Amino acid sequence: QVRLMESGGGLVQAGGSLTLSCEASGTIASPNAMSWYRQVPGKERELVASAFSGGVKNYADSVKGRFTISRDSGWNTIYLQMNSLQPEDTAVYYCLFRPLQLSDEYWGQGTQVTVSF
Q1: DSSP assignments along 99-114, one per residue
Q2: Is 87 helix (H, G, I), strand (E, B) or coil?
Q3: Residue range 48-76: average pLDDT?
Q4: What is the pLDDT at residue 28?
Q5: Are 105 and 24 in contact (CB under 8 A)?
Q6: CB 24 within 8 A of CB 35
Q7: Phi/psi at 89 (5° precision)
Q8: Close Cβ partners of 64 (under 8 Å, ≥ 6 residues apart)
Q9: E strands in 14-66
Q10: How confident is the model at residue 54 (pLDDT cuts 50, 70, 90)?
Q11: Residue 77's CB: how many other CB atoms inside 10 A?
């Protein structure tokens, strides 16, 4: 079982920055991927960025060059540095932990990010 604790959401003006964090605890199997997704009401949850335990990272086109995903040296905490935020980035952001050799996946509770004009 894996538990995820997210933090760092809030309200920011357009052009501002926020950093989200997600700490995983419990049985952390490797290899794994930790990701950030986001969702707005009425739309499907979409992938924002992923960081794999082997070091690979990928990003949605909409956030490339503005968002940076990173993992701490213990590989159980991920961060999402979000710069140049725009109102369309407003969403609930969710952390996902997924062991790559198992079918399990674990979601955080979500953290609200609101970007005002």
Answers
A1: ETTSS--EE---EEEE
A2: helix
A3: 93
A4: 87
A5: no
A6: no
A7: -85, -5
A8: none
A9: 18-26, 32-39, 46-52, 57-59
A10: confident
A11: 18
